[in-house]
Design goal:
heterodimer; A: Cytochrome Bc1 Complex, Chain D, domain 2; globular; B: 592 residues; 4-stranded antiparallel β-sheet; disordered N terminus
Chain lengths: 130, 592
């Protein structure tokens, strides 16, 4: 992720100043019956839930190691990125994440590769069965 | 009599000049030039040049290579007009003109402004599948959704049209096709909840003259009074919404057009497939999900649908039908010559259809298939294997083919001499679990956890020579890695293709015997072309350059890029080689 940061420092800064206008439109239809369950897991676990629910995994990989987007395993505080997004395809999630979600996300990304990393996929279950 | 003969000859010459054959058959193949992505408008990738033969191809040497200055997979193919070769780089897309009379010296480069945001929303690497030439201009689409017309002589922009905002998840990767006065282009972005479309732009101004969505009401799809379909399953009103019962997910329904467009000048029909329906989780979208994973025959002037056929109803395995549909005329049954349409689907079946009606005449697996046991030619439906259905929250094992498909974007070639198709195929399977997914605009709308597996037999790639009349293989050449690059067939009797592990190969079109191979500096994800060099002799050109998704299939990325090195940890082959190339290239080959 450091390579990307160096390469795109200028554009990322520009994006912070002028966040790209982007409509974030959760479709009620697709959300039916999947309202996020009440927090039942550790902070890292709830972070993983948001990571799957908000489709971070589609760009950063099932375990954060990157696919379309960069490797973010072990990343520090993500607040800036969540608020402003990036100029190279990272959307702003400001409208979709609370400050608790962001703290949980930080805990999740830090846990990747450690023995306490949550690896479940059934984010829509209160206590994911797998 | 003499007068009549001369007159008939004149008509024939005019017909050939217009791209039409005599006696109702369309001329196929290209010669000195390579003006369309697939060579001719039918997309046969057949060259009529005969200098290079099975007897002399082993002596082939590289004339020279020119670096593109870009990283990522170089998936398309150059064009050649006169003594100029035109290439479009991966994103940020540039159109570069090389002087073939001067060892590939750069004549000019056209660099449109680009929106970096497209890079991160491109599902599958920042690829471009090439340009098309017509009437003195070159046309191509950019990843950030503009279509440009550029003067082929001067490199000056003629027009540029914006087709949408990458912030919505929309990207464009396919090569346009020019038919009559239309530049036809299609959308990518199906993995990001894009509602796929195809559009016809005015060739002179770039103005959008028609746009058809591939999901939604008939009016949007351009299904009207002239629509017919061979099978009952594809008949009805507003199937693009009715086959999504209980949801409005057709609005994010994928069915994009990122593969190849082809045209039959005799029936005057444009053929294109559509990608998988979105979201990947099939339980979220009950029904057939039309017109995902389908083929359309359209009027290129208006977009109106002539016929349609859904290849994989309720696709649950990522079986895009975006690969080429190639019109060929062959003896079939009692017909001395039947107008066929041949297609190799990601789903593993090869389809030989009647291209006037959409009837499937032959359908047979060309690679191992587990999701279905066959295609019922009476109903047009696949016979499903229920044990390979995909559902939310449970893992379905050993689905073959994998989401890479039995054949991916990599185009096949057809030789009218052997009457065989040459298909770059993939032998891979997967375990797949569907996950609940929420639509957030500009993010992947997938809902899937997929593990790729090598197919049985100890090989993952195969060049398959296929007889479209019998639905059987003539021969095949196995490759350790998946084939992720196209084929070229020549009238000299040679078939060319490249591999991800850096080999450029030539085999005998009749037998598949290896005749020539050379190891290049990077792997090949591009499609060879043939044309005549400035000295009047036959040339072969092919790109090298493999980005993160193709590189993930075995070799890692080559050329290296900061972006790619940052993906998914170190490449499987170990840490990146500090001396690895930093640019893709186009390589030119000739006889000594």
């Amino acid at each position: 992720m450091h390579v990307i940061r160096v390469l795109s420092a200028a554009v990322a800064l520009a994006a912070l100043l002028h966040p790209p206008a982007r409509a974030v439109v959760p479709q009620p239809d697709t959300m039916r019956g999947i309202a996020s369950p009440a927090a039942t897991l550790s902070s890292a676990g709830e972070g993983r839930r948001v990571y799957l629910k908000l489709n971070c995994y589609g760009c950063h990989g099932m375990h954060g190691y990157g696919t379309m987007g960069p490797n973010i395993a072990g990343e520090g505080d993500v607040t800036e990125w969540i608020y402003a997004g990036g100029a190279q395809g990272m959307p702003s999630f400001r409208a979709l994440m609370t400050s608790t979600d962001i703290l949980n996300m930080n805990a999740y990304l830090k846990s990747i590769g450690t023995p306490v990393e949550p690896t479940f996929t059934h984010w829509w279950e209160a206590v994911p069965s797998q | 009599m003499a007068w009549r003969a001369r007159w008939a000859g004149g008509v024939c010459a005019a017909a050939l000049w217009l791209g039409l054959g005599c006696g109702g058959a369309a001329a196929q193949g290209t010669g000195a030039t390579w003006p369309n992505p697939g060579g001719d408008v039918q997309g046969t990738r057949y060259s009529t040049l005969t200098d290079i033969t099975p007897a002399n191809v082993s002596t082939l040497v590289q004339d020279y290579a020119v670096q593109t200055g870009s990283t990522g997979s170089h998936e398309g193919q150059p064009l050649v007009i006169g003594t100029t070769l035109y290439l479009v780089t991966p994103f940020p897309n540039r159109l570069v003109a090389l002087d073939l009379a001067n060892s590939g010296a750069v004549k000019w480069t056209y660099t449109p402004p680009s929106n970096e945001y497209a890079r991160g929303v491109a599902c599958c690497d920042v690829v471009n599948r090439g340009a098309v030439y017509s009437g003195g201009n070159i046309f191509f689409a950019t990843l950030d959704n503009t279509v440009a017309a550029v003067n082929a002589t001067t490199g000056a922009e003629v027009w540029r049209t914006s087709m949408g905002d990458p912030g919505t998840g929309l990207t464009m990767t396919g090569a346009p096709l020019v038919v009559n006065k239309r530049v036809i282009v299609g959308s990518a972005g199906g993995e990001l909840g894009i509602r796929g479309w195809i559009a016809g732009l005015d060739i002179a101004t770039g103005k959008q003259m028609w746009k058809a969505y591939n999901t939604g009401p008939d009016a949007d799809v351009k299904i009207g009074p002239n629509y017919k379909s061979y099978y009952a399953k594809d008949k009805g009103t507003n199937l693009g919404t009715a086959t999504w019962p209980g949801t409005t997910l057709w609005q994010q329904g994928g069915a994009t057009v990122w593969g190849w467009l082809t045209y039959d000048p005799v029936l005057k029909l444009l053929y294109h497939g559509t990608a998988n329906p979105g979201v990947w989780n099939p339980d979220m979208r009950p029904g057939d999900n039309k017109w995902g994973a389908s083929v359309f025959a359209r009027n290129p002037d208006t977009g109106a649908v002539n016929w349609a056929y859904q290849i994989t109803p309720h696709d649950s395995w990522d079986f895009d039908a975006m690969s080429e549909f190639v019109p060929v005329d062959l003896p079939f049954g009692k017909n001395a010559s039947r107008k066929l349409l041949v297609h190799f689907d990601k789903n593993g079946f090869a389809y030989t259809m009647d291209r006037a009606t959409g009837q499937v005449l032959v359908a047979a697996a060309f690679e191992p298939v587990t999701w279905a046991t066959g295609i019922n030619l009476t109903t047009g439906l696949p016979t499903l294997d229920p044990s390979h259905a995909v559902h939310q929250g449970v893992t379905t094992g050993n689905v073959c083919p994998s989401p890479f498909g039995a054949k991916n974007y990599s185009p096949s070639a057809y030789s009218p001499l052997t009457k065989l198709f040459y298909v770059p195929a993939i032998n891979m399977c997967d375990n797949i679990q569907a996950l609940q997914a929420m639509f957030v605009q500009g993010t992947p709308f997938m809902g899937a956890d997929v593990t790729m597996l090598p197919g049985a037999g100890g090989f993952m790639g195969e060049l398959v020579a296929w007889n479209p009349v019998t639905g059987a293989r003539a021969w095949s050449v196995q490759e350790p890695l998946p084939l992720y690059a196209g084929a070229l067939a020549t009238a000299g009797g040679v078939v060319f293709y490249g591999t991800l592990d850096n080999w450029f190969k030539a085999v005998d079109a009749k037998s598949g015997a290896l005749l020539f191979q050379t190891k290049l500096e990077c792997g090949i994800a591009g499609n060879p072309i043939s044309f005549t060099g400035a000295d009047g002799k036959q040339r072969i050109a092919v790109y090298t350059g493999v980005g993160w998704i193709a590189g993930g299939l075995g070799t890692g990325t080559c050329p290296r890029s900061g972006w790619d090195d940052n993906h998914a940890g170190p490449p499987p082959g170990g840490p990146p080689d500090p001396n690895a190339p930093t640019s893709g290239a186009v390589h030119m080959f000739k006889l000594p």
